[in-house]
Amino acid sequence: MEKIVFFGFVLFGIVFKVFSGTSTTNTESTTEIITSEITNDYENDNVTLEFGIDDNSTCDENCTTLTTVKTGSSPTKAPTTIKPNVKVPKISLSSSTKTCFCNIQEKVCDINCCCDKDCNYDMRQVFGKCDDDLNRVYDTSFCEYTKYIYKNNTPFEWTVNQNGFFCVAKTNLPRQYYIHKDITLNNLKEASLAKQNKFDWAEKDSSTTPEIDPQQGFMYGKPAYLVKNNLIIPWVIPDTLHTDSCSTTKTINLLEDVETKCTQYEINNNNKKLDLHSYIENITVLTSSSDSKYFNQKRLTLLQHCPKEICKNFDVLLCNEFLQNCSKLSQNVSKAHHCQGYSFNFSCKNLLQKLQYNIYHNGTQGIKKVDLLVHLMNLSYPSIHTVIQHFKVKFFWVNQNINITSQRSGNPGYIFKKPIITANLVQHKFVISKKPLNISTNATIERNHSKINEIVLTLPKNQNGKCILTNHINNQIQFGINNLINCELRELITTKNKKLNKDLCLNVQELISTFWSIELNNSTNKLFGKYGNANITNIKDWSNVSYTLTPENMLKRVNSVPSGNKSRLNCINLCTKLKIDVFHARSIVEDLHDQVQIVWITYSFGNCRNYTFLIEDDQISINIRLRFEVMFYDITTEKLKKYVEPPSLKISLPYDFFYPFVKIDNGGNLIKNSIVLIITLVLILIN
User: How many other CB atoms sit within 10 Å of the CB of residue 112?
Assistant: First the structure.
């Protein structure tokens, strides 16, 4: 029986193969490409050509002469070239379709377009590939699919022999095809209907401004409004669109912090976006829209005098470039921008560069106060005649204490793009160890809110090629964002009261370490928060930074080489590279899944080599290129699902519990039935 089944399968394969023919295809099986051969018989000196065409076929202008190569039976003979008087029809590269999708240039050969009839054989030799026509759909279950996936760029005709089994050679089903209904628009009304639910440019006509909902109150996401010349207008700030110019605006919504930056290219007196007065003159803030008796909802105009509780003025503060050290601007002081001159004598004053709205609210009671922080700048030749403006909107609760140390980076796990929390372990002795954190009674965890690099992981910022690290200019490392920073350290170090050159080299290394936010000669140990809500009162929330080479040992390697020239300082083993590796993993914390925890942070120092500095006027000119690298590594393990183990029962029975079921006869044997009963009882108790 088994032999009959076997021969049946063999017979089925033979029948299927004969039925499918030799031109079948299967992309998963071996495909043999057979080119037309040109052979030479040296004895008869006859040339045999096999091209699959009729010998009596005629040749027209679409034919070409084929150059053949004599090949003898002996591989050692050198081939000779002959030119038989045989015409071979040109190969049609687009036999499967009339349209060549990649033929874009008329009467020009398009590169990598194998179906382009403008490309001859020599031109196709420079092709690196054949562009695929992704707009055509072929049924891969049919055997003829092969001829669509091979492209012939040779002067020979060739066929494809498919040795595979399973492909459809012929079907009785109707031919399948795809259709797309042609769309026609006959009039403007149909064109307008076709635009429905499609993207379009916003209308700038004020008549399309939405009505104010008197019931909306003060709620997140609702639009904020200003009152200008008794007209209620949306509260907007300049923004960019496609380019960096201030070409559009961004709407301010309640309780949504916003920050934009754009460039003003028209620096003249006519550009009101550079004038501070255009943001404050005759403009007040609509604190709440619930009192509809003061304005017309449809026309967005005031009906009567608006009280200060509803239409509140700005408190304008003039600040430095970091929006710090602000002073209140008096109402009678004009800060209008003014430009004069042209070309080489061009100059401008009081150009608005930075503007920040600090909006203080009391929840549903609306806006209580608005501070407008501004920074004005001056321009004169040869300064660049453009102004990059910064706008920011921040919402605060009334009497909210703005303290950066109270900001979390997650609760509990870290949130993507939030800063990495750091702190200092202050103790009597400077000890940095790879061992787990151990805080003694004379050590405390401190976060100094006056220094940004002591509360979050911070690196310098490249500003015009120079390394800058201050409370206002810095590069806060965001969780999950890899960083690569290259900048130059340009400083001057005094040589007064320095007797040894080694001390000067140590001072250079210590200066470099300040950009690493590491104090080498201080009794502190740098810590990082394991979770985004790390608290200085909980020791388990923190872990110490690990060093491949401790800063103390790095300083020991720094030395100097005596120089006969007192105007030079030669330092050995100055390290200028810091690499920070952050290892994090997801875990489950208090039934919260996928809480990101920082497991380990490693500091590595590199690019340690020798440097020579010039000494002039008791000062050392430092010009060193520094490199900072930050990489994040996810080491999360596979999450496993566990089941709670079933409860176990511990039963203690008295020693004579089974006494009534035991019968001892004269032979001293137990009754078999009693044994069965005892076993049954025990099983019942266990279950």
Answer: 15
251's tokens: 């709407």
Q: Which two tokens stand for residue 281?
A: 């003159």
Structure-derived torsion over alpha carbons of residues 454, 459, 465, 466, reported in degrees to the nearest 10: 30
pLDDT tens per residue, range 184-230: 889 999 998 988 888 888 776 544 555 666 556 788 888 898 988 88
Distance CA 471, CA 450 (A): 8
Q: How many CB atoms lie within 10 A of CB 44?
A: 8
User: How does pLDDT run across 458-480, given as a tens digit for each residue?
Assistant: 999 998 899 999 888 899 999 99
CA distance 70 to 82: 7
Strands (E), 119-164: 158-162
3-class secondary structure, 412: coil
H or E element, residue 598: strand 592-606
Distance CA 42, CA 82 (A): 12
Question: Is the pLDDT assigned to residue 348 strictly greater than 70?
Answer: yes
Yes or no: say if 419 and 479 are a contact pair by the CB < 8 Å rule. Answer: yes
- Both tokens assigned to 400: 């909210």
Write out the H or E segment, with its range, that includes residue 459.
Answer: strand 458-459
Give the pLDDT mean for 113-132.
87
Other Cβ atoms less than 10 A from the Cβ of 321: the count is 11
Distance from C-alpha of 308 to C-alpha of 368, rounded to nearest angstrom: 10
Q: What is the pLDDT of residue 125?
A: 87
Given a contact cutoff of 8 angstroms between Cβ atoms, the answer to whether 366 and 287 are in contact is yes
Among 371, 26, 43, 27, smallest CA distance to 166 is for 26
Residue 295 pairs in a beta bridge with 302
For residue 274, report the phi and psi dihedrals to the nearest 5 degrees.
-95, -5
Under a CB-based contact definition with an 8 Å cutoff, are residues 66 and 86 in contact? yes
- Per-residue HEC secondary structure of 288-322 comes to CCCCHHHEECCCCEECCCCCCCCEECCEEEECCCC
- Report whether pLDDT(127) > 80: yes
- β-partners of residue 336 are none
Strands 387-397 and 347-361: parallel
Task: Check: CB of residue 130 under 8 Å from CB of residue 112.
Answer: yes
Q: Would you call 372 exposed, middle or buried from its count of C-beta atoms within 10 A (0-12, 13-18, 19+)?
A: buried
**Token digits for 398?**
């009334």
CA distance 421 to 456: 5
Query: Rounded to whole angstroms, how far apart are CA atoms 253 and 225?
Result: 9
* Beta-bridge partners for 161: 32
Q: How many CB atoms lie within 10 A of CB 354?
A: 20
**Cβ-proximal residues to 21 (8 Å cutoff; 6+ apart), any chain:** 143, 169
In this model, does residue 61 exceed pLDDT 80? no
Q: How far is the C-alpha of 90 from the C-alpha of 64, rounded, in Å?
A: 6
Kindly state the average pLDDT of the residues 341-363: 85
Sequence-distant (≥ 6) Cβ neighbours of residue 429 within 8 angstroms: 523
Q: Which residue has the tokens 């930074």?
A: 545
